[in-house]
Amino acid sequence: MTDDEQFAENLRARVTRVAPRIDVDVTRVVPAARRRRAARAGGVTLALGLALAGGAWVAATEYGVVLPGGSTTMPVEPSPSPTGPPLTSSEGDSLTELPSYPSIDPVVPPEGWRDATYFHVVTRGATGPAGEGSGPEAPLGSTLGSESWYGDGVNFELTASGPALMGLGDYINIEGHTRSYSWAEMEALPTDPEALHDALLSNYDDVDAPSSYGMEQLRDLAARLATQAPASPELRAAAWEVLTNLDDVEVEEDVRDSEDRPGTAATYQYADDDRFRTVIYDETRNLPLETQDTKHGTDIYLTTEFTGLPEEVADSVIEIPDLVAMTREDVEVVCLQKHLACTLTDEESDTAPEGTVISSDPAKGALVIWGTPVTVVISAGP
């Protein structure tokens, strides 16, 4: 019996014990489980951790683990092990096994997040071997791809095991310090280069008398806006003009990046060390091509576009359903189907009928990963 068949059989048995009248289409559950395998094995640990913390007594039932006070934690089936070769980026590059910024807490998305616009970025990175430095002058020791979708409060990264929900709140992250912009703030940034120069610099320093520190932050921020940030084409062009017109930035035309694409290079040095950064940009198409950094290696930008979220990426995350007013039996089935470590606890209520759900935490609509703990409060009556 394969792992998938065993998983389906176990799930069918549990659902039958809980609510025989409800059918579960395991042929749809198993593929969904495979898509979410990036978070595999986490659910069982979380569920057992809730039961065993503090050395409190527990008792197993056919529905889960009974905690002191009568609460019950639902079991979570382990995610099936991945089969077949690891996924690659849309450009065919190998990907990381785990997300760079894993989502730990539930993400509360805006309404219509599935149909919203996302900033799709595909890069190829190269670094030198350990002990031999990195950057464009170092021999290539490893090449790794990255593919991400940045949205208004919802972000995804493609890993070797599938799409993964990211725990990101920042859209512009400068090494050593951070300046965060919401999507609304990004849209409000001026697209006139002179006005943008002053707006960016004012985050760090006096616009009329900037220090070397303020100018260094300005350079990094303008470079990030021109390359990795979800900036509109007009804002990206303005950021590039800001960068290339700074006094301590050397500009060279008619250069070639690592993919032999023609562009213009902007190079600057950091004040506290011998580190240099070069951004290569295609001014004709208004697109970033490459960032070369003597400390952090080379990032090659293969795709930077605003697009819709692919269905398979949206389907990789678990959305908390509306559990309020459900019966205990129905909630137990839903928790099994959604692979959630639900803890069911009773609470007196004068308004909710006995045996029905009063609330859930996380609430309806929150985005979570496989095995996420969910507290479900059920009415015990008045």
TrEMBL record:
PASTA domain mapped to chain residues: 314-380
PROSITE patterns hit by this protein: PASTA
SMART domains: PASTA
InterPro entries in the cross-refs: PASTA_dom (IPR005543)
Record Pfam families: PASTA
Positions of the UniProt region annotated as Disordered: 73-95
Recorded superkingdom: Bacteria
Protein known as: PASTA domain-containing protein
Organism field: Promicromonospora sukumoe
